[in-house]
């Protein structure tokens, strides 16, 4: 007998749509999670609008991270057991009652973090860690410019940077969000509605690493504030895809500009990132040196309202859906 479940996909008119789907079965190296909470991400908003299709072979069900309970195991031997409370980084499929996940993309919930908040830590901390400390290889003492600093990724990076000895400069779109960034450790802040941040960041000492989900006009401004051998990692297009590049500055200052998306990375990379989180980040949660960045938890029935809040940048940190 086929077992069905509720799930949410993108409709043709770019709205969340409920569908009944067959409940997935875990493959040899997978576990099946009964989803308790789904974490929302801007990538979900892009997929909803038709701009960010799932990787080949992945489900069209929305959602890149969940927390929940292991209810079935594939054939591989591993540390997870039935009944374990876990959180997981997904290729897709998180807006559903059940999801099958490669076991190496699943982690036990850090001690001291509740089941709801755990749905909002994998994607943002994986993004912050991988792009800044693996790709850009930020070293202690290097200065980091964090754009959209009150976003889930921004808040994750501010906390990691503080723990790893990296001074931070934060930009965001309201004084309330900047106050939040300062409370998380940002040395200086800049309201994006004031225009270019170039003079302020230059006076601060410039940036060795920049994490940028904005692009557009920010690309040129980022180049102006990057120090010698600086690294700019672009992870989003909130400001538009067209940008003007200064090739002279790129060469003279030996700048590196890197485009990066997490979702399309192969399982081998995601597994390495999750192992890094377990080694380097989970202890910080357990020692209460960092915290999840949760803005609100909404019933899954209110998913359309949740997307509207995400679309209008009305959140500071993660929005979660409870099943």
TrEMBL record:
Residues 11-321 form the Enoyl reductase (ER) domain. This is Putative NAD(P)H quinone oxidoreductase, PIG3 family. It comes from the Bacteria. It holds the Pfam family ADH_zinc_N. Transmembrane segments: none annotated. InterPro entries: ADH-like_C, ADH-like_N, ER, GroES-like_sf, NAD(P)-bd_dom_sf, Quinone_OxRdtase_PIG3. GO terms for molecular function: NADPH binding; oxidoreductase activity, acting on NAD(P)H. CDD domains: p53_inducible_oxidoreductase (cd05276). The keyword NADP applies. Keywords: NADP, Oxidoreductase. The keyword RNA-binding does not apply.
